[in-house]
Amino acid sequence: MVDGNVRLAGGRLLGRDCPPLKCEMISASAAEQLLTMIITAKFRYDVDPVSEALHYKRLKDEEGYTVPEISRETGIHATSIYNRLEILKLDPEIQELIGKHNLPADLRAVRAFLSVPNPTARIKLAQRLARDGVTIKSVVAACEKLNAHLEWKGGDNSKGAP
Predict the structure, then answer these.
(1) Are 162 and 121 in contact (CB under 8 A)?
(2) pLDDT digits over 35-93, tens only?
(3) Which residue from 29, 38, 57, 110 has the fewest beta carbons nearer than 10 Å?
(4) What DSSP line would sit under the chain, residue for residue?
(5) Is the C-alpha dihedral spanning 25, 28, 32, 38 positive or negative?
(6) Residue 81: partners with Cβ closer than 8 Å, 6 or more residues away
(7) For 126-157, what is each residue's pLDDT tens digit?
(8) Which residue has the higher pLDDT, 81 or 5?
(9) Residues in Cβ contact with 18 at an 8 Å cutoff, skipping those fewer than 6 apart
């Protein structure tokens, strides 16, 4: 189980100074293990938003959970779960930038990127914004500007230049 792994890792770090640890083997289903991992990670560590979203997706797709059920089991608001799942609609390159905390994971930024119809242009813009360090407002503004540019060019911008 995840909690035991955390305790074991802590015990190994402490070495001989570690107090005796209670160890109990518990059989858990894959879904229960995923739920425990989400709860443990969410409240103990700075988990990247993409990994969090992938856990929710796995619970939905592989274990048949609904978002309200995940919310009830984890104590995480359903809206937060839906917002994280929205990240998975983005291109893998943009997900990676969000996962590294180079771009905001906020729903407004995610939707702004999704509003750009040209995937090449969207990715190039995201990479440029990630280099510059941006706020949610600047992501939204840059996506609006790129959309206006693409519309002005007739929507056919195969080179994807922002």
Answers:
(1) yes
(2) 677 666 666 666 789 988 998 998 899 889 999 999 998 888 999 999 999 999 999 99
(3) 29
(4) -HHHHHHHHHHHHHGGGPPP---------HHHHHHHHHHHHHHHS---HHHHHHHHHHHHHHH---HHHHHHHH---HHHHHHHHHHTTS-HHHHHHHHTTSS---HHHHHHHHT---HHHHHHHHHHHHHH---HHHHHHHHHHHHHHHHHTTS--TT---
(5) positive
(6) 56, 67, 70, 71
(7) 999 999 889 999 999 999 999 999 988 775 44
(8) 81
(9) 10, 11
Q: Which two tokens stand for residue 89?
A: 């609609």
**Length of the chain in residues, anyone?**
162
